[in-house]
Amino acid sequence: KFRCFIHFESQTEMLMLFRLCVCVSFSEAAISCLNEDGQPVDWFIIYKLPIYKMAVKGSGVDYMYLDPSVMDFQMSKHTVNSSKGALGRTLTQLYSRYTSTSLVYMLYDDAPPELKYPSKYGHTKGTLLMFDQSQGFWLTHSVPHFPPFPERNYSFPSTGKYYGQTLHCITYNYTQFPQISWQLAYLNPRMYNCYVPMAFRPDVAVMAQICDGKTPAIINRRSLQKLKSVRGQTFFKSNSMLNVLPRYLHWLGGSSIGLLVESWLHQAHRLPSNCSLPRHVMNIDRVCLPGPQMFKSYEDHSKWCVSYAFKDQWTCLGNLNRDSGKAGRGGGLICSQNSVIYKAFRQAMAGYKHC
């Protein structure tokens, strides 16, 4: 065995070396979804509770948390407007490192913060993509006006407190981001802040085009992409130029899959439960999370669906409303057959409307 001893001429030299080690350690930290303790995690899902739950007023910033180490949704000790929870810790990576020239980031939301709400873009409530040439994360969510511009630091909008919201973060190796880049063309996202250095542009050309304010050309009107998280979990990203939920049935398994759908049903053109297909698409009207935390669908702005049959175990989260007025706008879902995710959301379905 060999031992190495370093002799310091002064306490100042020792302090300088310590600071250098801290800086190097921070700069080399892998970009990742971070859990409630700030540790890297393959994926996490946050279900922010609405301010009103069955006429009982809450804070509007409390949330339930789920990741691979948790078997069901758990109430977080943090709030979504705090930088100490999983969401704040994950996004702080952007706010502390956005000036770096060795990473890519893109923020989009059809209702961006501080800007007007143009309807010509896809119905793509929020996303943050951030990665370097090693790995990164893709955070998708249903929150308007979020996240803030990188220069503003982390915060959660007051407009996002009223309704329930879902946020889904997945960590990917760099090899997955060229595929993710192609998916963005089908979403027609309202990009409001981004940075794509020249070294990355050959790999993520579509993302670079969108960042430059251009509209990428596409051949088909829909796309389905198989993605692998950094720890090997399979996710399917399905996007379409048409924001119509039943079309996704055929991509996931044809007409053999029936869906229970949670979608914001405030719009005048909301679609009723549909039994015209061999397997039905039925609207969830009540959600019940552990606690119990129960609320009605119109108190919930999140968008998700689960397969009706337990054997299929499909769960999809995204930005699709069951609303005919949004059928012409792009939209998408991230789906998986992860048993932990399926069980958590299937149990959250407390009631649905039959055809």
TrEMBL record:
It comes from the Eukaryota. The keyword Cytoplasm does not apply. GO terms for biological process: apoptotic DNA fragmentation. Residues 1-29 form the signal peptide. It catalyses: Endonucleolytic cleavage to nucleoside 3'-phosphates and 3'-phosphooligonucleotide end-products. The keyword Metal-binding does not apply. This is deoxyribonuclease II. The lineage of its organism: Eukaryota, Metazoa, Chordata, Craniata, Vertebrata.
